[in-house]
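Page 42, continued from yesterday. The earlier attempt failed because a stray header line got pasted into the input along with the sequence. Redoing it now with the clean sequence only.
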Amino acid sequence: MKRRWQGHSITCLLGLLGLLLIISGCAVRPYPPVHLTEQVPAIAELARAQQNGRLEFVPQETGPAIPVRVFGRDQGGTPVILVHGLQSHSGWFVQSADFISRLGGPAYAFDRKGSGLSEAKRGHADNYEEWVEEIHILVELATRRHGSPQVHLVGHCFGAIPATAFACRYPELVASLILPTAAIHTQTDVSFSEKLAILSGQITGRQNYIPIHLQAEMFTDLPDYEAFIRDDNLALTQATAQFYWQVHKARRYINQHLDRLTMPVFMALAHKDPICDNAENRRFYTNLPAQDKLLTSYEDAEHILEFSREREAFFADLATWFRIHDPGYDRD
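This time it went through. Structure tokens are written below.
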């Protein structure tokens, strides 16, 4: 009887592996070619903000150089590192980077490995620690360049995950953590078959691409910005199974090291957000050990606050936050 059960178990296991291989084979395979050139957006305020920045490429030992847009390089405040979202790239957040620089802080908005202008494998990550290390490289550059012991860290949307993981790993380097519409918890998810494909990638090593199920209208209800997102050929549309697995691991790492987030935290929610799970993110905020923390919700925003009618309100709150927490920022 025992031998029969063992044989049945092996048969079931082989069947499961076969199913995973079939599902893996059904996943999206190639990434469409991307022409990696800096674009001037058609939206006037985005174009103006982008022109105020300087595009640099920061070398690293383990891969292609990191593209980073630097705003206010000569400013004297504590540097700010901006981390973009899943589908986006640094070009989506030039308005907040430019605004921060006008407050008095040098702002560094970079493209994550495999996103935007990065020449690394598109939409892939071997390990979530690569995201943490990218931030670390830029933190070392900015603190050395500006003679500052710390940085303010802004994690937009999905960028909240690598930003918060960095803050857990290097809390002594973070003056404050700012999380606009953080994707720590989300309403959106991959399908069951795609979850199986992600799991099969861990078993078989096959790294097929899985679509990113986010549409332009989920980010904003402003037509010009919807068109910008829809037409952006630098936007990420797919990611590998390994990338998705590393997102899971990064979230788990954050939950295991929540006690390290004692620095000041500003968390901003979009009230109508179809991507983030605001209720779960409120619980995350409540559980933060930081004594100095602020949670604000913006009623007339879909997801990206600077792509909404709440942009000026968010920027005003951002200015107040920096003026309170950093003597190098304008207090007028």
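Notes: Strands lie at 54-60, 63-71, 80-83, 107-110, 151-155, 174-180, 209-211, 238-240, 265-270, 293-298.
Reminder to self: strip header lines before submitting.
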